[in-house]
Amino acid sequence: MATGLVQRAITRFPVTFSTARAILNRSQASGAQTPLAKSEFGSKPVSDLKTFHIYRWNSNNPDKPKLHDYKINLKECGPMVLDTLIMIENEIDPTLTFCYSCHKGICYSCAMNIDGWNELASLTKISSVPSCMISPLQHMFVINYLVVDMTKSY
Fold first, then answer.
1. What region holds the Succinate dehydogenase/fumarate reductase N-terminal domain (predicted)?
2. For a tag site, which of 28, 53, 92, 116 has the least CB within 10 Å?
3. Which of residues 139 and 124 earns the better pLDDT score?
């Protein structure tokens, strides 16, 4: 029964890069402050900070999907997108959900849509990503935040 509910909800909220961009533009236009964003880094230079826009939607919650902004000091995390996601989960927002296993790009469990491209978070360098918009894979059913149903892939 839960699977049918998830599939109906996913068909209602398909994840595409243009959908994520529209959500971001809408939240920036309204001037909404995200309570989960890391606020201050003291007197660090602005060039060390990078904003990550991460897709947030839970299949158990009927609200519309949102993009949360996280400001990250790049000197405090590793060079890959997966390192940043792990840091956000450990230090800023423990409710963030995503999959990873090997941390080497072998298992493909960290596959997600990064700036409109389907890539592995463990192999994608932060420096190669201009706007850092992270969402689940577009062609999969979203279970929770960045976790997708991979049963048909395996």
1. 51-152
2. 28
3. 124
Q: What is the CATH number of the domain that holds 46?
A: 3.10.20.30
Structural domain including 43 reads 2-148
Report if residue 153 sits inside a domain. Answer: no
Establish if 154 belongs to a structural domain. Answer: no
- pLDDT band per the 50, 70, 90 thresholds, residue 70: very high
Distance CA 81, CA 103 (A): 11
DSSP 8-state code for residue 64? P
Residues 6+ apart with CB under 8 A from 22: none
Q: Which amino acid is at 92?
A: I
- The total number of structural domains in the chain stands at 1
Q: Per-residue pLDDT for 101 more than 70?
A: yes
As a whole number, mean pLDDT of residues 19-27 equals 60
Q: State the chain's mean pLDDT as an integer.
A: 76
Q: Which residues pair with 72 in a beta bridge?
A: 50
Query: Is residue 6 a part of any domain in this protein?
Result: yes
Q: Is residue 99 part of a domain?
A: yes
| Residues across the chain | 154
